[in-house]
Every structure is written in C-alpha cells, then in structure tokens.
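Batch manifest, entry 17 of 40.
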Amino acid sequence: MNMSKNIKDKVVVITGASSGLGEATARYLATLGAKVTLGARREEKLKAIANDIKANGGEAIYLTTDVLSKSDVENLVNKAVETYGCIDVIVNNAGIMPIAPMAELRVEEWDKMIDVNIKGVLYGIAAALPIFQKQESGHFINMSSVAGVKVFSPGGTVYSGTKFAVRAISEGLRHEIGGKIRTTCIEPGVVDSELKHCTTHEASSASIKDFYDNFAIPADSIARTVAFAIEQPEDVDVNEIVIRPTAQEF
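Output type: structure tokens
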C-alpha cells in the first residue's frame, strides 16, 4: 500500500513553520502532495520557504502568525480553509526552550514558555476543533518533548512542565473528541533546531550547545514521524511517539 496516498491533497496547517521541525515538516509533507499552510512570526522566512516549495512543484501558502495571539492562530486556520476548502491536520509545533536553574527566578521566561508552549497549542486546538467537528474528521499533532516524559533538570524544570502539559492536553483531547478526530502527541529528543538558541543563562547555554553538538539528529527525522502519523488509515490513530537520537540517554 502506498501510504503517501493518505497524505496527498491533505491540507496541513503548521505553526512555528519558519525553521527547524516546522520547516522540515512543511517541506517534507509538500513533497508527498500535502497542501501546507505555514504560520510563524518571520514573514521573510515563511515567504522564502513557501516559494521554494512551490518552485519544487508543491503547494504552500503562509500567514505571519504569533501563537501568543488567539486571533492570529484563528486567521491562519481560516486562511487554509478559505484557500483549500477544508483543513485536515494542524501541527501545533511552535515552542521555546529558555533553560536556567529555578533559583535564577527568570519569571518572565517562565511566563513566555507557558504562553508559547501551552497556550499556543490551546489556541491551535481552539481554532481547528470547531472545523474538525463540523467536517467530522481532522487530526491534531501536538509537539511535546522527551522533557515532557522525564523532567529535564537542572535548568529545564519549567520547560518540562509545559511539555508535560502538552501531553496531558493531548490525551484529554483525544479522550473527549475521539471517534472521528485523531490526536497525536510527538515527544522528540535532541533535534537540530533553533530551540538551542533560546537560552540566555550563560552556563546553561554552553551545556545545551554541547548537548546538541554531540547528539542532535536532523529535523527531517521528525518530519518523517509526522508523516507516519498522518498517513495511517483514518481508523488508525497514532496517539504518542517518543523519538530520540540513538545515542541520547535522556
């Protein structure tokens, strides 16, 4: 069975699509025939990625989107529906990872992580769920982390808290709306992305860089994982995937 047939012509919305996992996922799904709608804050990067996808024969549109804004996320989803007539998948991927010990009391960073990593996912769910319910089909793919499976400490305690929350929200969502709507939570380990640049605490930043330099796998590893979840027949719901570099212990 050619699984890519289950991806061809599917309309996929992706947040955090201007780099890393989001960009790799958009590019890969487009090669399989998906119609991708890209959302992120950096318009120039979105435009370049969308143009590249189209130059290679794929279909892509974009909208500048800040996941801190509920209306921005709604507009992104609505643009996909207005352009393509429906939305089949939303990949709630946008996230940040500033790492620092709790004793540093970086409360502003805690607030921002909660807003981007948790509320950003919730805004994506809120934008897509009524459409999925009306269609009686749809697929949520929420990006958590191995730090949502094991607490990443010292330094990643609040980040872990946000990623545990994504797992909890994903499982509760699946339980509430399952039947015809699918929910997948993906928990990547160290993957090459801009997450490693989020940290301003000097000692933590050095150890994060070292960790990524030694272990990170390419972002397209996660793109293939997203594709695997989407391409399953409609009666198969891949609920949770933990994917790490082979050499990563944490």
